[in-house]
Amino acid sequence: MNQATPETQLRHGRVTSPASRGSVAIEQGLLGGWQVNEMEGGKNFPALAAGPFPAPFGTDNPSVVPPADGYILSGGKDDARDCVNFTDEEMSKKLGRPFTWPLLNVTPGQTLDIKWEYTAPHTTRGYRWLITKDGWDPKTRITRAQLEAQPFFEDFYPQVPYYSHAGELKAKVNHSVKLPANKKGRHVIVLMWIVANTGNAFYQAFDVDFK
């Protein structure tokens, strides 16, 4: 019996609008869509350790180990997907030509509309949004120290335990977030799709320019 190759196992999901770093990597020929669909890592980020998901959702499956610093944007993946963690300089070396991550023009406090495409819409706890600190350094990879300590937005389903509400805890194809009102210039946003019945979240990253 032939086993499916990874290329044919289109699982999980990714943001299709606006363009994420994963989308850009696909456009540059560095990744396939299936790889961007599988940028999953421990869901307790920015915590460092595996363990129970925080209250009031402690009945959700515990988190596996969250991504290490420098590998956050790929959900901890250090294979070909590592390219989404690259700085402009690293990407320029990889592509053999000058490269800067394209910036999405946004305004402070605006609502950003997100569209997902799911190939396996898991039982969903919710979505968490993080952003880089003022004065972060684009010439280094994203670490916990580069990110604000607290998420700027979370959108969690309140129903517990998840296994009694699986039909209600649906992944959202379209959702919106209000961006921070106090940011200027270039920043990186990290979006986590947090799954209730596994130890993982799926990570998507966006480069933005607050005008």
UniProtKB/TrEMBL annotation:
One of its GO terms (molecular function) is monooxygenase activity. SUPFAM superfamilies: E set domains (SSF81296). Coiled coil: none annotated. The keyword Signal applies. Keywords: Monooxygenase, Oxidoreductase, Signal. It comes from the Bacteria. Residues 1-21 are annotated as: Disordered. Signal peptide: none annotated. The keyword Repeat does not apply. Residues 12-208 form the Chitin-binding type-4 domain. This is Lytic polysaccharide monooxygenase. It comes from Pseudomonas ekonensis.
